[in-house]
Specification:
By secondary structure, the protein is mostly helical. The chain is built from 23 helices and two strands. The protein is globular and about 70 Å long.
Length: 498
């Protein structure tokens, strides 16, 4: 059964049908149709993990069909330990987003649900494409529904934020297209990404390719200093847009480094590892300070995401004196990508719950929420603790693995990276104290109603995921182990043309 094709095209076709036939007078039917489509799409991805062979690094569930025969372009799909969890995560988050919008979105419901379903399929396509041109099509196509989600259902400055998001990410991707075309001709007319991994390239060509991919993927992560589009996009996006942006779309750039930069240009990756480590540490330390001074909850969590993603790129580019990558750090970085999807998505959902009731994201508008919403406060504080990296939660595992890996390479790099435990606790607890604890600050807080069943189920599922991954991360690391080992063996061997 072509599980990957179903996971891609089922939500896309469902979204198109909702756009064509959904009407606001049938909004309830549209919501149920979107929920059923998203659940079916998620169920299709489960066998990808349960049937995954953890003993091999080879691509699994491979599908191959000719697409543009004249140029040797294939519809080529497959997943390995580096990508399979993100396919599952994309489909899972889409279910959460559909549930989160059940009562909040009352106009253009079919367009809202359709945009997220289409985006879900495109995201799965990015993580499973093994043909360079197919990857580029999916990668760029994700911009369109997210641009519309921000621009149509966003806040007062939504048009500005949508344009900034679109232009930043599109500009970076143009250089990647040039790199893909170069690799196509260099490989004798093939867009097969795995064949590109075996190409012996001169160092100067590797460096140019490395930076072409860097500009495309660094913007997506986003790395400092090309991060400025993210806070604006998060602040103006509707809650569902912020959730998908933080939980999935930021992972596209990090995944690109794993699939393209490191295996295609390993020598350039070694040469410029110091540059990547420096930018990553700036994101961890400097952006942590920036988060400390934010008064808007969404903006604070947005800057927090940049700092946490700094751990991801740091883990990828930690090489020892012999040029070998660090398995603990790379595995930790991938775990951090998954855990950040759960934690950041939950944080933005919590902000959305408050915004739906009070219509303010300012920290100063709240105080003593735990007095009137005890169930909600318990879950929100759990997610906040995970954001701090509390042991026993998903937020701890990946960061701790990267720090341990960094110690093996350089103590001072590890020390700077570990400082995020201080800054993360500072800005997160600062927000928690002022929003959830203390006396009831005003009549708006005093009139708040606690979570209904829909909201409790939505946040409860994420809480279970955060705790399960924090207490027992072994299933996640087992799946990625063989692929990470193969990647590190590959990057430790010079690919310079002799």
């Amino acid at each position: 059964m072509p599980l990957l094709s179903i996971a891609i095209w089922l939500p896309i076709l469902s979204g198109v049908l909702l756009l064509a036939f959904g009407r606001d007078e049938r909004a309830e039917a549209v919501r149920w149709a979107a929920l059923i489509a998203s659940i079916l799409s998620f169920l299709v991805t489960i066998p990808l993990v349960t049937g995954f062979n953890t003993a091999t690094a080879a691509m699994q569930f491979v599908e191959r069909q000719p697409w543009i025969g004249r140029f040797n372009v294939w519809y080529l799909l497959g997943v390995d330990g580096l990508s399979v969890w993100f396919v599952l995560l994309s489909a899972f988050i889409t279910v959460i987003v559909v549930v989160s919008a059940w009562k909040v979105i009352t106009e253009r419901v079919n367009q809202y649900m359709g945009a997220f379903l289409i985006l879900s399929g495109l995201l799965v396509g990015v993580f499973s494409a093994l043909d360079g041109l197919l990857f580029y099509v999916f990668f760029e196509a994700t911009l369109i529904p997210m641009y519309l989600i921000i621009g149509v259902w966003g806040g007062p400055r939504r048009v500005y934020a949508a344009f900034k998001f679109f232009l930043y990410t599109l500009a970076g991707s143009l250089l990647m297209l040039v790199a893909l075309i170069y690799l196509y001709y260099k490989s004798g007319g093939s867009f097969d990404i795995l064949a590109w991994h075996r190409l012996p390239l001169p160092l100067n060509a590797q460096v140019l390719l490395f930076f072409a991919f860097f500009f495309a993927f660094a913007v997506k992560v986003p790395m400092w200093p090309v991060h400025t589009w993210l806070p604006d996009a998060h602040v103006e996006a509707p809650t569902g847009g912020s959730v998908v942006l933080a939980a999935i779309m930021l992972k596209l750039g990090a995944y690109g480094f794993l699939r393209f930069s490191l295996p295609i240009a390993p020598d350039a990756s070694h040469k410029w590892a110091w540059f990547m480590v420096a930018l990553s540490l700036i994101a961890v330390v400097y952006i942590g300070f920036v988060a400390l001074v934010q008064s808007d909850m969404k903006k604070l969590v947005a800057y927090s995401s940049i700092a946490h993603m700094g751990f991801v790129t740091l883990g990828f580019f930690l090489f020892d004196a012999q040029g070998r990558g660090n398995e603990l750090a790379v595995s930790g970085a991938i775990v951090q990508m998954i855990s950040h999807g759960f934690v950041s998505g939950a944080m933005f959902l919590c902000i959305g719950v408050l915004y739906d009731r009070v219509h303010s994201r300012e920290i100063s508008a709240y105080g003593g929420v735990a007095n009137t919403m005890p169930k909600f406060a318990a879950l929100a504080v759990l997610f906040a603790m995970a954001n701090c990296g509390l042991p026993g939660t998903a937020g701890f595992v990946g960061e701790w693995m990267v720090i341990l890996g960094a110690v093996k390479v350089n103590f001072w790099i590890a020390a700077l990276a570990a400082s995020t435990m201080i800054w993360g606790a500072a800005y997160t607890l600062w927000m928690v104290k002022r929003v959830y604890f203390g006396a009831v600050a005003n009549h708006h807080v005093g009139e708040l109603q606690d979570l209904d069943r829909r909201e409790f189920a939505m946040l409860g599922v994420l809480a279970a995921a955060v705790l399960a991954m924090g207490i027992y991360p072994k299933p996640f690391t087992d799946v990625m182990h063989a692929s990470v080992e193969q990647l590190l063996r590959h990057t430790s061997i010079s690919k310079i043309a002799q």
